[in-house]
Amino acid sequence: MCATAATRVSNVNGQLPRRPLAVYIKKTMRPAGIYRKLLDELHDGVYFVDRDRRITHWNAAAERISGFSAKEVVGSFCHDNLLQHMDPTGARLCIDGCPLSRTMNDGNPKVVETVYLHHREGHRVPIQVRTLPIFGSGGTVTGAVEIFSKLDRRGSDLERRLSELRRRLMLDTLTQLPNREHAQRDLGTRLYDFQHGGTAFGAIFADIDHFKNINDTYGHAAGDKVLKVIAATLANNIRPGDMIARWGGEEFVGAFASLGSAGLQVVAGKLLMLVRGSRVDLTDEKPLQQVTISIGATVANLSDTVETLVERADELMYKSKTAGRDRATLG
């Protein structure tokens, strides 16, 4: 939608024609008629807010990407922090730094390359955000629209790879992550490549903090939910070519291509932040449970085997536990 013209709308992914705003945006800030149907056909999430940042429309893709239905969202304010948008530094954008608010203040579109959306089920989903102003007949800004697209950190061949993993019975049934057998093969392949002229890679060993207490306090079904939320947060936020697997129990193992100690520290810090920012609604009677992980991180050596690499990362993880949890130790 064109933010530089007060009475025209540019297309979203080539699907909306350039027509006067009044044709499809009512004074209530809701799309009308065929334009509403078109918005629900888009692959991108789209929602409208009025000048007070009240959400007035929430399309079908927004429901699919976020897990929140239009019934749950429409009528609330984006500063209610239901979506809990977070940038890569951990700043809460819905409270301070909202791109929709900035767009309405200066009348200019905004693009935020990476935002972490709080999914209804608790995990974090990486998205790209674009905001555009909506102008009234007098040329004043009367609201704004946000368009958000899911960033697939695992590559466009995800479905093919997952189908292959399922065929070979190498997926963990609870979390849908690669299982321990797959992780061992993956690490073995990476070590072989490294020892035959390839580049070094980083490995992490992560363990959920106080997981026994979660099971004892809330029950094993809640513990399973925590495992799935953390698994989804980790898996959604790695690069193509990287790997996160469930090692066993509440333990996860990851491998990160072409990373030295400095890069591995950045990755570990990012994963800690995203897990810390993921919340799990365990029961109706008990409060939301914040979960954290402890990480051990190390760079592969030419003399490593899969066993020595994982053992070293595991020992470093226990140092993180001893030092207070919710942190990464490199070595």
Characterize the structure shown.
With 331 residues, the protein is α+β, with helices and mostly antiparallel strands. The N terminus is likely disordered.
Write the layout of secondary structure elements.
Elements: H1 21-24, H2 33-41, E1 45-50, E2 55-58, H3 60-66, H4 70-73, H5 99-106, E3 110-118, E4 124-135, E5 141-150, H6 158-167, H7 180-195, E6 201-208, H8 211-218, H9 220-236, E7 243-248, E8 251-257, H10 261-276, E9 279-280, E10 289-290, E11 293-299, H11 306-322, E12 328-330
Parallel strand pairs: 11-12
Antiparallel strand pairs: 1-2, 1-5, 3-4, 4-5, 6-8, 6-11, 7-8, 9-10
Concise description?
The chain is of the alpha+beta class and 331 residues long. The chain has helices at residues 21-24, 33-41, 60-66, 70-73, 99-106, 158-167, 180-195, 211-218, 220-236, 261-276, 306-322, and strands at residues 45-50, 55-58, 110-118, 124-135, 141-150, 201-208, 243-248, 251-257, 279-280, 289-290, 293-299, 328-330.
